[in-house]
Amino acid sequence: MRTVTGELRLGVADYTMLDACALAFLGSKEGRPLIERAYNIHPDLGFIVETLAVEGLEGIEAIRVEVGVPIRPMLAERLNSAKAIIAKLGNKVVAAEYKLDGERLQIHKRKEGVTLFSRRLEVITHNYPDVLELVAKNVASREAILEAEVVAINEDTGEYLPFQELMHRRRKYGVAEAMKQYPVALNFFDLLSADRKDYTNFPYGKRRAKLESVVKETERTRPVPALRTADPEEIEKFMEDAIANGCEGLVVKDLDGVYRAGAREFSWVKQKANFPTVSKIGTGFTDEDLQKLPRLLKNYESRVKPPNVESNLVPDVWFRPHLVIETIASEITLSPIHPAGMGRIRKESGLALRFPKFTGKIRNDKKPEDATTVDEIVEMYNLQLKKVERVAQ
DNA sequence: GTCCAACCCATTC
DNA sequence: GTCAGACCAATTCGG
DNA sequence: CCGAATTGGTCTGACGAATGGGTTGGAC
Q1: A167 touches strand C (CB under 7 A)
Q2: For A32-75, what is each residue's pLDDT tens digit?
Q3: A279 is near strand D: CB distance < 7 Å
Q4: Bridge partners, A222 (sequence order)
Q5: Cα distance between residue A39 and residue A31, in whole Å
Q6: Residue A359: nearest nucleotide (C-alpha to C1')
Q7: In chain C, which nucleotides are within 7 Å of a protein Cβ?
Q8: Domains in chain A with CATH codes
Q9: pLDDT (tens digit, 9 = 90+) per residue, A297-342?
Q10: CA(A16)–C1'(D10) in Å?
Q11: ipTM of the assembly?
């Protein structure tokens, strides 16, 4: 249920619905945490509301984790230094783990077979026949719910490949061919249920121990590399290892934390002319920025594409290059759309920014000629690759 | 009637 | 994925 | 001491990149 009205943003989502139902059927919001918990381990709004209406709070309390029914995934928060994370988690020993650039899988294993759920709890079992086999062979538990990151790999070197490669596996047709062309590996990072026992209320340390006892380490399967420490410097070092191994960064976990389905926990990912386009950008602007931009650009508006601009996209309004703004992005990807560096890395491919965002800084001290050049972007792209290659050796 | 490119929409991150 | 804004609860500040 | 102001946490919906698949409409 959604509505957007002019300048006002309104939203009615599932949680609001749960609130309303708690009020309607119980007369108060008191049962809300129980209802929320039930919803998060059995995310079917119709089912929850019906149970509440027919059986009341008792029925809600009787809802259990069930293999075959997806659980809303626990999510991660973001901080930008190891020190801040350690402080936030209470200055104690934590588990720092590689954060891989793949797709999150919630794996349900039972007698009848294995089911795979995506992050949004879609059934994607048919996409990964190879994963089903890996789970059948290498998970030493008849019934279990596990979470893993599935990553595309280079079969010869074992090296991890970018997310883009994995995306070829998300298809309805030609699954068998894609499976051969884009082989994958599994990095397990959580265990929510095993042999009919619900582990979601166990501290992470225990879940991880059980995970390690259940997942067999092979070329294609393993518990995700983890380090236990309370020292920010060790985490920084581990972070560098992770990046060097082609990961996005780290996820740092509270060893005492339970699995809070559907909630946000803690994590961390550290980072870091012609005028060909390299990205569109629509994130990072405050309302104030958006109000002021038309005024700043008014004098540079152009009815047609300015001759010194190279773009495959057609915007609503063109501007002659004038204003320089500062943007950051998580990395540079090969692009079928943006012409920056076209053909320099790969035939018919340019380069684009991944997760571009405005930093809030308008660089009045710079002219378009002073902005980052294509050469520099190509160099940045090559630097990214080197880091990955170094590990593969 | 058949085929294919262009478009839009879904999902992942 | 990132991010800004809205909203609510808890905490701190100022009269 | 109490009400006002600030802060922190959570939720929601804007927006970015990519790929695959369904639909549509024009060329033949």
Answers
A1: no
A2: 888 888 999 998 888 888 998 899 889 999 999 999 999 999 98
A3: yes
A4: A187
A5: 12
A6: C3
A7: 1-6
A8: 2-61 (no CATH), 75-272 (3.30.470.30), 275-392 (2.40.50.140)
A9: 887 776 666 666 778 777 777 787 788 888 889 889 988 888 888 8
A10: 12
A11: 0.83
